[in-house]
């Protein structure tokens, strides 16, 4: 039989262990973080404000997904991509891979209204994560398509020089894609699932025109791209590419967040080389086939978004809650 001292020792250790777990959880992301703050309706406010924006701009979901992705892959999900340059020092948004990224104004507008209701409580990083989810969800489902944990703080550094090498390009091969994702703590399944975001939105002709007109430098086309699709793209994107012209990333389904992307992918109609690259690896190709099922795609996409949205987050006493998303507080 255990002695009374042994029982007290077990109880003491248990308190220490579980107490430490609670402290760690409190300093990290969690569900409904803002319900325990002075802004308990924060997520509802973001949802309603985002809905108004998305109703006026059906492409907003695709834009905010891309904005969040580009934010998280550089310095983590700290809203550093939202910061404006200071003087001659270029910020992340000034780097070449981010020049076609949009959605900044919508996030700034939502933040301004949140600040009026709850000044200094809700971070720009959380607003971006919530708004991206809500903009995609509102026309698809009465409930959010994936969970968003909250409690992020905003970073105070944004450097254009840190973007190249961290954002996968449209011409990336599978090896470089896999390496980039692994460096962020994401696996091949995450790579394939998150690529499914290409089921919504549009792309500029210049991002893929080499596949149509000069794939190897000899005036040829990419043999991995469906021939009929090539002719369709050429009709929309004459050579040289017009920087203003865009085409659907998922033909006939670019306005619907569904598994159609994976169906066109196996037909060799993935718009980017990085799309086609998913078929060049046995494991990723198997995942592509699995995610052709609508429910499977939505489930896996949600899991991968949750992982991506936790990359390099700032929580607890670090970072700050910006008053304006484009400036650190010392500049306001």
What does this structure look like?
The protein is mostly helical and 332 residues long. The chain has helices at 4-26, 42-56, 60-72, 104-117, 124-137, 174-183, 188-195, 209-213, 227-236, 260-265, 273-276, 282-290, 294-308, and strands at residues 202-204, 246-248. The termini are far apart. The relative contact order is 0.15.
| Straight-line distance between termini | 66 Å
Helix/strand order, N-terminal first: HHHHHHHEHHEHHHH
Can you give the helix content as a percent range? 40-55%
Q: In which order are the strands of the major sheet placed?
A: 1-2
Major sheet: 2 strands, antiparallel
Average the pLDDT over all residues and give the rounded result. 92
Which band does the percent of strand residues land in? under 5%
Short précis:
The chain is mostly helical. It has helices at residues 4-26, 42-56, 60-72, 104-117, 124-137, 174-183, 188-195, 209-213, 227-236, 260-265, 273-276, 282-290, 294-308; strands at 202-204, 246-248.
Secondary structure: elements and pairs:
Elements: H1 4-26, H2 42-56, H3 60-72, H4 104-117, H5 124-137, H6 174-183, H7 188-195, E1 202-204, H8 209-213, H9 227-236, E2 246-248, H10 260-265, H11 273-276, H12 282-290, H13 294-308
Antiparallel strand pairs: 1-2
Helix pairs in contact: 2-4, 2-5, 3-5, 4-5, 7-12, 7-13
Keyword list:
disordered N terminus; mainly alpha; 2 strands; 332 residues; 13 helices
């Amino acid at each position: 039989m255990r002695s009374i001292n042994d029982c007290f020792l077990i109880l003491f250790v248990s308190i220490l262990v579980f107490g430490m777990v609670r402290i760690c959880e409190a300093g990290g992301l969690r569900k409904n973080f803002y319900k325990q703050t002075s802004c308990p309706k924060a997520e509802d406010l973001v949802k309603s404000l985002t809905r108004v924006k998305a109703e006026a701009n059906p492409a907003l979901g695709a834009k905010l997904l891309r904005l969040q992705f580009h934010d998280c892959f550089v310095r983590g999900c700290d809203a550093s991509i939202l910061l404006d340059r200071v003087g001659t020092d270029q910020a992340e948004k000034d780097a070449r891979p981010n020049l076609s990224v949009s959605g900044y104004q919508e996030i700034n507008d939502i933040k301004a209204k949140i600040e009026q209701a709850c000044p200094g409580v809700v971070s720009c990083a959380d607003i971006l994560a919530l708004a991206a989810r809500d903009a995609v969800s509102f026309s698809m489902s009465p409930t959010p398509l994936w969970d968003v944990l909250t409690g992020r703080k905003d970073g105070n550094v944004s450097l254009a020089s840190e973007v190249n090498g961290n954002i996968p390009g449209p011409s990336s091969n599978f090896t470089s894609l896999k390496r980039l994702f692994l460096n962020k703590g994401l696996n091949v399944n995450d790579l394939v699932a998150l690529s499914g975001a290409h089921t919504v939105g549009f792309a500029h002709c210049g991002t893929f025109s080499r596949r149509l007109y000069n794939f190897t430098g000899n005036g040829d086309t990419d043999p991995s791209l469906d021939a009929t699709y090539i002719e369709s793209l050429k009709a929309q994107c004459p050579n040289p590419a017009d920087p203003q012209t865009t085409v659907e990333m998922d033909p006939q389904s670019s306005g619907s967040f569904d598994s159609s992307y994976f169906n066109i992918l196996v037909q060799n109609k993935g718009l980017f080389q990085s799309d086609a690259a998913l078929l060049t690896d046995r494991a990723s190709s198997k995942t592509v086939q699995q995610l052709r099922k609508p429910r499977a795609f939505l489930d896996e996409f949600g899991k991968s978004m949750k992982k991506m949205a936790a990359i390099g987050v700032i929580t607890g006493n670090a970072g700050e809650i910006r008053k304006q998303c484009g400036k650190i507080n010392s500049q306001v």
